[in-house]
Design brief:
Arc Repressor Mutant, subunit A, mainly alpha, 2 domains, 82% helix, 6 helices
Length: 115
């Protein structure tokens, strides 16, 4: 999976759990694609400070993902939806569609059990 996409998903799922400063710096880095120099200038910190904040923020997002697995579940369910759409376009048999739907139901049930 594309690292930029994965990091953006982590941010989308968990950014509200970060401090305002962490969220702001990561937003500038991930969503606005600003350089360390641009971030440091806007925030009034050193380039090293911006880099450290990005690394710490990403570590926190990874820790949250390791505990909650929301991004992994989202990617899995999105893949199943893609499969389902593909099968529908191909005119798949009902049984194939039912199997994919059961996989989706199972993925959601696992998510609910872990909450």
């Amino acid at each position: 999976m594309d690292t930029i996409y994965y990091r953006s998903l982590l941010f989308d799922f968990y950014s509200e759990l970060l401090t305002d400063k962490q969220r702001d710096i990561l937003r500038m880095h991930l969503q606005e694609d600003l350089s360390l120099g641009e971030i440091s200038e806007i925030r009034g910190i050193s380039r090293q400070g911006a880099s450290d904040a990005i690394h710490r923020g990403m570590e926190l997002l990874e820790q949250m993902e390791n505990k909650l697995h929301l991004t992994r579940k989202y990617i899995h369910i999105s893949g199943l939806i893609d499969q389902l759409e593909e099968k529908l376009e191909e005119g798949a048999e009902k049984q194939e569609l039912v199997e994919i739907a059961e996989s989706m139901r199972s993925a959601v049930a696992i998510s609910m059990d872990q909450e």
